[in-house]
């Protein structure tokens, strides 16, 4: 039964990839390219690159602990098979990062990654529900859902930020603020049902501006405590805080715009590629944001 379950998961992943419009033969090339990019960035920024990879795997492992999903597995498989599946899934998740750590001789980070995979195999978190209150309003809904999927990651980033203040390491604090902003970007990955837009009386421009405003304000609700403390403690490096703040002000609207360029489908390869380009050369966002903004307006006219 375990083999059948793993085959089913493989088919689901294959269908998700084909939904992007790309042939399945491209998947291994993208995987190799992404792994090489992570390896290259790790060479350039060994400390923060290692943190980033660990936190990325932490969030992926956390998503696999969602209660409803694990309740289904428990009801379907025996206890032994359930934990076997969880360990195998976690092993597949950490495998690319583990290979990079071992290749570079980062044994400590590799051991930490294995420990995370083992611990998360025996944990179940209720990621949704009234038991996890959020500081966000229902509009936009993305931050309520996103927070309940990533609250543990946000908590870890705040702990790292506090450590950065304690050891007087401004770069670590900026890394945590940037991590919070990137986490918020991924909240806009999934589209809402079409009737949400049908019920709106706003024009496409007003709809997007409202999304921008609420998204930025709620992202700043995450990041502003660290930013303000950073500007106070590291007052001589306030310009770096402004750069990160500017990144939030541009990157989040860009992610929202890409969501409604792709709407009603999920964000696929073309939009992800545009986002990666901006990560690689951030000033490019000044040219791409207006271009995709008008594409989003044109697309939203079909639904508003």
What does it look like?
The N and C termini lie far apart (47 Å). The mean pLDDT is 85. 76% of the residues lie in helices and 0% in strands. The chain is mainly alpha-helical and 304 residues long. Helix 7 packs antiparallel against helix 8 (170-185). The chain folds into two domains: 1-127, no CATH class; 129-304, no CATH class.
Topology readout:
Layout: H1 2-18, H2 26-44, H3 46-63, H4 67-76, H5 79-103, H6 107-120, H7 142-166, H8 170-185, H9 194-198, H10 204-233, H11 238-262, H12 269-280, H13 285-300
Helix pairs in contact: 2-3, 3-5, 3-6, 3-7, 5-6, 7-8, 7-10, 8-10, 8-11, 10-11, 11-13
Q: Could you tell me the number of beta strands?
A: 0
Bulk shape: globular
- Distance from N terminus to C terminus (CA atoms, Å) equals 47 Å
Secondary structure tally, helices: 13
Question: In percent, how much strand structure appears in the residues?
Answer: under 5%
Unreliable residue runs = none
Please give the share of residues in helix.
Answer: over 70%
**Helix/strand/pairing category:** mainly alpha
User: H/E element string?
Assistant: HHHHHHHHHHHHH
Mean pLDDT: 85
> In this structure, how is the largest beta sheet organized?
none
Transmembrane segments: 21-42, 48-66, 87-104, 110-129, 150-166, 172-191, 212-233, 239-261, 273-294
Keywords: Membrane, Transmembrane, Transmembrane helix
Protein name: ABC transporter permease
